[in-house]
From TrEMBL:
<feature type="active site" description="Proton donor">
    <location>
        <position position="168"/>
    </location>
</feature>
<keyword id="KW-0624">Polysaccharide degradation</keyword>
<feature type="active site" description="Nucleophile">
    <location>
        <position position="356"/>
    </location>
</feature>
<keyword id="KW-0378">Hydrolase</keyword>
<dbReference type="InterPro" id="IPR018120">
    <property type="entry name" value="Glyco_hydro_1_AS"/>
</dbReference>
<dbReference type="GO" id="GO:0008422">
    <property type="term" value="F:beta-glucosidase activity"/>
</dbReference>
<comment type="similarity">
    <text>Belongs to the glycosyl hydrolase 1 family.</text>
</comment>
<dbReference type="GO" id="GO:0005829">
    <property type="term" value="C:cytosol"/>
</dbReference>
<dbReference type="InterPro" id="IPR017853">
    <property type="entry name" value="GH"/>
</dbReference>
<feature type="binding site">
    <location>
        <begin position="409"/>
        <end position="410"/>
    </location>
    <ligand>
        <name>substrate</name>
    </ligand>
</feature>
<dbReference type="InterPro" id="IPR001360">
    <property type="entry name" value="Glyco_hydro_1"/>
</dbReference>
<dbReference type="GO" id="GO:0030245">
    <property type="term" value="P:cellulose catabolic process"/>
</dbReference>
<feature type="binding site">
    <location>
        <position position="167"/>
    </location>
    <ligand>
        <name>substrate</name>
    </ligand>
</feature>
<dbReference type="InterPro" id="IPR017736">
    <property type="entry name" value="Glyco_hydro_1_beta-glucosidase"/>
</dbReference>
<dbReference type="InterPro" id="IPR033132">
    <property type="entry name" value="GH_1_N_CS"/>
</dbReference>
<dbReference type="Pfam" id="PF00232">
    <property type="entry name" value="Glyco_hydro_1"/>
</dbReference>
<keyword id="KW-0119">Carbohydrate metabolism</keyword>
Length: 444
């Protein structure tokens, strides 16, 4: 069966996603302050071949051409993020008008081209000035974030309706504050748990602020999620898989829905109490208009006696010798079906939108063309699974490809290419891959 766009219904939202630090470049232009990523990439051996996002896709200077290209590919919804330190170079206080001007131009041109903007307010690039005060470990971040959100909604809300509060809080708290492999490079349980709780608070607080300023806004937040399976049917592996599921998939959605942190399955989460104040549990709740699902793969989990706190570990795709992407993630499209079913099963869940999904493959530029049949196949297989879930009654209303342009893939630098459009980072040339042409045809 060939699946068409029409099968998903007229109201289904189709788009692409990007993030400021991964594409904009212009890292210190026109009054922008440094973010934690600008600082982190300067440290030796944190990023693949010490790449930086200083220039990236230079989207800041190429956005006109890029939006026109998007339009030519029939893409009608564009999810991008705002760089907090471009708007507020010190994180709080004085607004950088040139930063506001840039996003105004971006929004205006999108609308002119009939592309609907979806703004992510936080996609990991915290102003460095705020990290110096503790960043996500400092409870004051709830107010700092609230002030920044207020400024964005007041400036852009007359033209932008769709807002995403946070991008994947589990990833930025775990990678940035527990493992130290992402900015700001902090490690340890205390850093992680405080960051988790404050991100949870900021998530609901930010959403409340958007609604209070713009009551017809459409507000959501996004979660990274992977279908989890135990390595064997042994009890120990089953318990390990449950813990991983609680941490990877349930940590942020459940407090948001009023269910509290998943402490039953991960006892160590009880230590979050140390950071909680009276009434926090209520404050973590918010009725979002949608939940953004971001899925790339599944994880297989086994018991591991020597892993502290969790006693669980991932059995890598490489070890299992299964088909993998350039990120060494298993190609497993059914994961998205299981995740949609899982989230849809929460009793008071709002509609789901897939705000990110895609794959990195080793693309090659030959005769000014990039042929990427594996990505086309991956996207088609994913859409079949989304359709399967939808047919079974899952309330899923949209799908955004990660990502439009090849870009700076965090700790992996420019090595993995996720784009529908190939970027030659030597000369900033854009070449639409066959997957980009396929998506354009699909959307026609
Ligand atoms: C993030 C993106 C990232 C993508 C692929 C998601 O975790 O939101 O910024 O590039 O996955 O790794």
């Amino acid at each position: 069966m060939i699946l068409t766009k029409d099968a998903f219904g007229e109201d289904f939202i189709w788009g692409v996603s990007t993030a400021a630090y991964q594409i904009e470049g212009a890292h210190n232009s026109h009054g922008k302050g440094p973010s934690i990523w600008d600082v982190f990439v300067e440290k030796k051996n944190k990023i693949f071949q010490n790449h930086t996002g200083d220039i990236a896709c230079d989207f800041y200077n190429h956005y006109i051409h890029d939006l026109e290209l998007m339009h030519s590919l029939n893409i009608l919804n564009y999810r991008f993020s705002i760089s907090w330190s471009r708007i507020l170079p010190d994180g709080t206080g004085k607004v950088n008008q040139l930063g506001i001007d840039f996003y105004n131009r971006l929004i205006d041109l999108s609308l002119e081209l009939e592309i609907t903007p979806w703004i992510t307010l936080y996609h990991w690039d915290l102003p460095h000035a705020l990290e110096k005060k503790g960043g996500w470990r400092n409870r004051d971040i709830k107010e700092w974030f609230g002030d920044y959100v207020t400024i964005c909604v007041k400036h852009f809300g007359n033209r932008v309706k769709n807002w995403i509060v946070l991008n994947e809080p589990t990833v930025f708290t775990a990678a940035g504050y527990f493992f130290g492999i992402h900015a700001p490079g902090k490690k340890g349980l205390g850093n992680f748990l405080s960051a988790v709780h404050h991100a949870s608070l900021a998530q609901a607080h930010g959403a409340r602020i958007i609604k209070s300023i713009q009551n017809d806004s459409v507000v959501g937040t996004t979660f990274s999620c992977s279908h989890i399976e135990p390595f064997t049917n042994r009890d120990k592996d089953i318990v390990a898989a449950k813990k991983a599921d609680a941490l990877f998939n349930r940590l942020f959605i459940e407090p948001l829905l009023g269910l509290g942190y998943p402490t039953d399955d991960v006892k160590i989460l009880n230590r979050i109490e140390k950071y909680m104040q009276q009434n926090d549990e209520n404050e973590l709740k918010f009725n979002m208009d949608f939940i953004g699902i971001q899925n790339y793969t599944r994880e297989i989990i086994r018991h591991a006696t020597f892993v502290p706190f969790l006693r669980a570990k991932i059995v890598s795709a490489e070890k299992r010798k299964v088909e993998m992407t350039a990120m060494k993630w298993e190609v497993y499209p059914e994961s998205i079906y299981h995740i949609l079913k899982k989230f849809n099963a929460y009793s008071n869940i709002p509609p789901l939108i897939i705000t990110e999904n895609g794959a990195a493959f080793p693309d090659r530029l030959e005769n000014n063309q990039v042929d990427d049949p594996k990505r086309v196949q991956y996207l088609q297989d994913i859409l079949k699974q989304v359709f399967r879930a939808k047919q079974e009654g899952v309330n899923v209303n949209g799908y955004f490809v990660w990502t439009f342009l090849d870009n700076f893939e965090w700790a992996e630098g420019y090595h993995p290419r996720f784009g529908l459009v190939y970027v030659d980072f030597q000369n900033q040339q854009r070449i639409v891959k066959s997957s980009g042409h396929w998506y354009a045809d699909f959307l026609k």
